[in-house]
Amino acid sequence: MTSRVEHTDVGAYALGLLEEDDRFAFEAHLLGCPACRSELADLAGVASVLHGIGPLPEDPRPPSTGDLTGQGDVVGRLRRRKAAHRRQRRGTFAVGMAAAVTLVAGGLTIGTQLSAGEPPVAQGEAENMGPAEQFFAGGTPIEGEGVDGVTGGLVVESKAWGTHAALKLAGVRGPLECELVSVGKKGERRVMTGWSVPPAGYGVPGSPDPLYMHGGSATPLKDVDRFEVVTSTGRKLLTIEA
Question: Which single residue of 60, 82, 147, 150 has CA 20 to 30 Å from 5?
């Protein structure tokens, strides 16, 4: 991905599979791509669940150089390099598929791992919930203070890589573009996830279901002062104290 940034690199980025140059390029891409930020939020926490899953086994058969003479060593090196690249791609695909199975099957969901002291979500209920809603249902929400009828709250947890949070938002109509932002005690702001609100809105008459989103911040939870839901124009809709 060093020569270009692809939307399909979200999974590789979430699982820490990108090289340094590619990672920096993709992080720059995230700033201007709400779709990738939303997809990345859906994968938050999956990498820790998949720890230890490696690439597919290598093909034990040595590459053949055919009937070429003189150039056999060069051709063999090129073929070995190409085979290694294919194995690397297969390994990335295997890990990505494992992530997808984890999210779809619901057997190892982020929400059920939030706290050992919280009762697990019933299997029948979990099947009807997305990952963010399961995360929220499995924790203890912190209620936020909204404006103009907006309500909501967060469930947060401290992670080795920073802070993971699940948001419930209601009483908002669109069209809007919004972001969940962590604000550090020293004032640093980090976008955790972003989304768009359709005209019908969420948690309002005619569209009663609230919105559930989750995402991550590199700021450790102990260093977070508050969380904010803000629009693309800078209007603050909800404030949640850490």
Answer: 82
pLDDT per residue over 191-228, tens digit each? Answer: 999 999 999 999 999 999 999 999 999 999 999 999 99
Whether omega for the bond prior to residue 60 falls within 30 degrees of 0, making it cis, is no
Distance between CA atoms of 157 and 146, rounded to whole angstroms? 22
Q: What is the 3-state secondary structure (H, E, C) of the chain?
A: CCCCCCHHHHHHHHCCCCCHHHHHHHHHHHHCCHHHHHHHHHCCCHHHHCCCCCCCCCCCCCCCCCCCCCCHHHHHHHHHHHHHHHHHHHHHHHHHHHHHHHHHHCCCCCHHHCCCCCCCCCHHHHCCCCHHHHHHHCCCCEECEECCCCEEEEEEEEECCEEEEEEEEECECCCEEEEEEEEECCCCEEEEEEEEECCCCECECCECCCEEEEEEECCCHHHEEEEEEEECCCCEEEEEEC
212, burial (CB in 10 Å: exposed 0-12, middle 13-18, buried 19+): buried
How many residues appear in the chain?
242
Residue listed under structure tokens 């803000």:
230
- Measured N-to-C along each axis, helices 34-42 and 20-31 cross at an angle, to the nearest 10 degrees, of 120
Give the pairing of strands 142-143 and 145-146. unpaired
pTM here?
Answer: 0.52
